[in-house]
Amino acid sequence: MQDYKGSCHCGAVRFSYTGEAITKGLRCNCSVCSRKGAMMSTELIPEADLNINADEAVLGLYQFGAKTAKHFFCKNCGIYTFHETARRLGTIGSIWVASKGLISSPLSTRCLMGSICCDRLIGTTKR
After folding, report:
1. Is the whole-model pTM more than 0.85?
2. Residue 51 domain-assigned?
3. Which domain holds residue 94?
């Protein structure tokens, strides 16, 4: 197990958790993540294991479609830090580029076909 700490750009939203060593990245291609260019860890974190240090007035929430997934960001600097996934409610996906020290070593990545599973799940797929 390894301790991870991350934050938005301005530091107003900070988070930490303990989890398995992150050795791979995940890039989702759903309509939101593809626009953000978000890279996240493949490990989903139980919501209770994520420690968030942010004033409620600074932590923003963005939802779309069926409003199942919860995308959190800093209202000051706009950086997306973590999200509650639509595919497994009650778990958090960590944005590993927001976790200090993780981008210093290259990681292999895979693509989650969010445009197929997530967008259909939340009702945003165009047919």
Report:
1. no
2. yes
3. 2-122
- Where residue 64 sits, what CATH number does that domain have? 2.170.150.70
Q: Which helix (H) or strand (E) element contains residue 46?
A: strand 44-46
Residue 127 inside a domain? The answer is no
Chain-centroid distance, C-alpha 33 = 9
CA dist list (Å): 59 to 11, 15, 103, 105: 11, 11, 24, 29
Band of residue 103 on the pLDDT scale cut at 50, 70, 90: very low
* pLDDT tens readout for residues 77-101: 998 888 887 777 777 776 655 555 4
User: How open is the CA angle 29-86-23, to the nearest 5 degrees?
Assistant: 60
Provide the 3-class DSSP secondary structure of residue 112. Answer: strand
Angle 81-82-86 (CA atoms, 0-180°, nearest 5)?
150
- Number of structural domains in the chain: 1
Q: In what order do the strands lie in the sheet with 80-84?
A: 44-46, 91-94, 80-84, 70-74, 59-62
